[in-house]
Amino acid sequence: MKQSDKIEVIVVGAGPSGLACAYTLAKAGVEVLVLERGEYPGAKNMFGGIFFSSIMEKFFPNFLEDAPWERFVGKRKFALLTGDSEMTFEMSPSSFNRSPFNHSFIARRGQMDQWFAKKVEEAGGNIIPNYCVRDFLYEKGKVVGITSGGDDDSFLADCIVCSEGANSLLTERAGLREKIGPEYRSIAVKENIRFSQSVLEDRFGVTGQQGAAYEYFGSSVKGLLGNGFIYTNKDSLSVGVGFSLSDFIKSGNKKTPHDILEEFKSHPSIAPLVRGGETVEYMAHMIPSDGYNRLPKFYRDGLLITGDAAGLLNTSFFHEGVNLAMQSGILAAETIIEARAKKNYSSENLSKYEEKLNASFILQDLKNCKNFLSFLTTHKAIINEYPALMNDILVEYFTVSEKPKTTIKKEIFNRIRKNVNIPRMASDMWGAWRNLV
Length: 437
Hints:
Elements: E1 7-12, H1 16-27, E2 32-35, E3 50-52, H2 54-59, H3 63-66, E4 71-81, E5 86-91, E6 104-106, H4 109-122, E7 126-128, E8 135-139, E9 142-147, E10 154-162, H5 169-173, E11 185-194, H6 197-204, E12 210-218, E13 226-232, E14 236-244, H7 245-250, H8 257-266, H9 271-274, E15 278-288, E16 299-300, E17 303-305, H10 322-342, H11 347-350, H12 352-359, H13 361-368, H14 372-378, H15 385-398, H16 405-419, H17 422-436
Parallel strand pairs: 1-2, 1-10, 2-7, 4-12, 10-17
Antiparallel strand pairs: 3-6, 4-5, 4-6, 8-9, 9-10, 11-14, 11-15, 12-13, 13-14, 16-17
């Protein structure tokens, strides 16, 4: 290929991080080409359903009026499920129900990514769908382009941004991360179940553009490390489960992820919410769970890594991903713009990207919750035994009978003393406070 055919920047992947990077570059007058493996941006992308919009709103102040979101998240519920019961904490603050709606919106990635991609093109960026990048091209150790497998389908560039998503094989080949194993990935399966808008709003107690986000822990995924969720779209529900892939394998569970989703839907607390709907979409997706202690290297000569490909996902209770991905794309673009001014895309110049990540909320938040998954993995009583025990205690205490409450309390205490290792539980609770909150 001729050097005259070289593009300034190539972005691999048209997800939130890739599009945010491309948009920032295009607005700065940098020539940028986005290569997307799907038929269109968003065609193969999935996420739980909440789009955290604070970063997007910096790009588009009219986000509320222009973007194709489904509902704002006005109600949030966190529930612990046991075999046939539920304990719930629900909140609907007035501030969440007025602009800017806590920057939390229920959306569909297929629609949102297409909308964002059009904004990139309007800003001057180019997007090519149906292009699968097989590998990077190298010259004297520097990444100088990409290829789909043949010379005729290769592109040269001054700098490459890899935003390929969770199954980041390109970053492995580039030597930026260790081989990805199941212990560093989770899997999510989800259905969109259609209802009439009136049925959905009556069932979830929402009106107008208000929506609800329910997250279920405890036995929602049959003892695995993960959770279930329900999000209200305009006229459908996003219903799904996500759990650790290694935990699933180690459990020896002969059930499929689909089976676990079906069992979640059949729980006595969930079944009434999904009853009578029509499943119109089914999808599964891999989720990075690298954690702060196993993040890849973010750069090398001519190459930067963003979003899920870089493991930038907050796997704690906050479940933030889109906002981290977009911010990483912006920081990558800013780094490239600075390197462009020097006409030097060496790893020394591109290392500024990691400095920017460290100074941002991205790595500070990931560092704060770095022990979240490892702690839960070794202290499963917190998600299995203790919720079941708490449920039984509350049921027993509030059961109406002629038994005096003082007797009931003594019986409960004796039960706890007999069935629970008190020092271990105290240690677990202290560890939970330090690592999970």
